[in-house]
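Hey, can you fold this one?
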Amino acid sequence: MNRYAQVLTASALAYTAQASAAAKWARGTTMSSPGALFRTMNAAQRQALFDNTARQIGASAKHIQERHIANGTKADPACGAGVAQAIARLV
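Sure. Predicted structure:
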């Protein structure tokens, strides 16, 4: 394969990977990995996650907090609820 064909092949593969990622995002399936990771955490690890997240976004605008909570809820409902409770405790 000549260099030109290699570049075209690499470009086509990169485009296919981007299209695949975009399709997964559009279907809403991108939260399976974060959800799986969250479900492997024990109670202390989950609480550390909630507290750290709340400290980092606690001063952010309300819509940013709500979006983060919604994303956490997509991963696992307990994740979104835990972050929301941790933020509420900061106020």
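The radius of gyration is 19 Å. Let me know if you want another pass with a different chain boundary.
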